[in-house]
Design a protein that fits this description.
Structural class: alpha/beta
Strand content: 15-25%
Distance between the termini: 34 Å
Bound molecules: fe (ii) ion
Strand order of the largest sheet: 6-5-4-3-2-1-14
Number of helices: 9
CATH superfamily: Ribonuclease Z/Hydroxyacylglutathione hydrolase-like
Number of domains: 1
CATH class: Alpha Beta
Length: 364
């Protein structure tokens, strides 16, 4: 029998509505049989991806299932927040989550690694950690990240033996996949606490010299080498000429990186031109912008990347093209290598396989 209004309360509404995609994507990922010499990848929102190989290796990177601001009652940022440090702001930033939750972390049944690229709170999630740690089917899952990410997981109660601290140069081999750890370039991390020496100065970062070692402990990039090709995930990296170094050291097929429209006074996200330069430097074949989906105050039109690419590709003889994705979408490479834009499956492909039930055919 259908519910009556008397049966519905706030908890029931939330349970019936959230996560918005239910277990749709969990089921799709689990059912996916990745063709030989391919990889399959899903965009889980923000920088989060799920990667699956023909040999059955499964990993998530930067899976984050939380939200942003949710009340106007708090007026100011917490002291020491990276944006407050960066530009001297105090007012709370209006970063509201803009995209639906497409995956249910508590319904994950198979996984090998849960990776984090860096310490920022939209790249690590206590809910995801809990969903993994409290699920006996996922006892095998290892949490992989730089030193400070592992410190955060440990603080949340993830046992140390479940964590792998990585630094640039490290590699992890598993089934038919290899994870290569590289320097990360989210320089916002350099003004994100903890910063060595800041506590002794009452939280002031003035004059404190960042080191490569400290950066490596906070932030890394990853390459995932699979039978279908190599994926470079730069996460929140700012533009760096070291992309050219990474492009000489490794063959890159697909690159993902953040993109967004920085509010005035902030330098945090890559612009369209940065992304094209990044893909060119890495000698990649496909570049996929991410992160622009999630925050209401960093929204950007990804069409700008396409326009700029079309303007420059002939003269600069680009060997890559952009792929504009959607959150919750699947990308199978190299099968989808020529796609420029994604559209979710549109359905109705079984039309007219059964007789329509209409009064007269002429209405159709
Ligand atoms: Fe981020
Ligand atoms: Fe970040």
């Amino acid at each position: 029998m259908a519910d009556l209004v008397q049966d519905i309360d706030r908890t029931k509404w939330i349970m019936n509505t959230f996560p918005e995609w239910g277990t749709w994507l969990n089921e799709e990922i689990e059912e996916e049989v990745v063709p030989e010499n391919h990889f399959a990848m899903w965009w889980l929102g923000n920088c989060g991806i799920w990667l699956k190989t023909p040999g059955g290796a499964n990993l998530t990177m930067d899976l984050w299932c939380f939200r942003g601001k949710n009340t106007k009652k708090v007026k100011d940022m917490v002291p020491g927040h990276q944006m407050a440090n960066m530009s001297g702001v105090r007012k709370l930033q209006p970063n509201l989550r803009n995209v639906p939750m497409v995956i249910d972390p508590f319904s994950i049944n198979e996984l090998d690694f849960c990776l984090a690229s860096h310490i920022h709170s939209d790249h690590m999630d206590i809910n995801v950690a809990a969903a993994i740690i409290n699920n006996p089917k996922l006892d095998n899952v290892k949490f992989v990240g730089p030193y400070y990410c592992v410190e955060i997981w440990k603080k949340w109660g993830v046992p140390e033996e479940r964590c792998i601290v990585v630094k640039p140069g490290d590699t992890i081999k598993h089934k038919d996949m290899e994870i290569v750890v590289l320097e990360g370039f989210d320089r916002t991390c350099l003004v994100t606490l903890p910063v060595k020496g800041a506590e002794e100065q009452g939280g002031s970062l003035k004059g404190l010299c960042p080191s490569d070692e400290e950066m490596d402990q906070k932030c890394v990039n990853y390459i995932f080498k699979t039978p279908g090709g190599n994926i470079y995930h730069g996460a929140d990296s700012h533009f760096s000429i070291q992309f050219a170094k990474h492009g000489k050291q490794h063959d890159i097929d697909v690159v993902l990186n953040n993109y967004g429209e920085n509010p005035v006074g902030i330098m945090d996200k890559m612009t369209s031109i940065d992304l094209l330069r990044m893909a060119e430097s890495l000698r990649a074949k496909v570049v996929i912008p991410v992160h622009h989906d999630v925050w209401s105050n960093f929204q950007a039109n990804a069409d700008e990347i396409l326009h700029l690419w079309r303007l420059r590709k002939d003269r600069l003889q680009y060997k890559f093209h952009p792929f504009l994705w959607e959150v919750g979408g699947k990308y199978v490479y190299p099968r989808d290598k020529d796609l420029i834009e994604y559209h979710h499956p549109r359905g109705f492909d079984d039309c007219f396989e059964h007789e329509p039930n209409v009064p007269f055919k002429c209405i159709l």
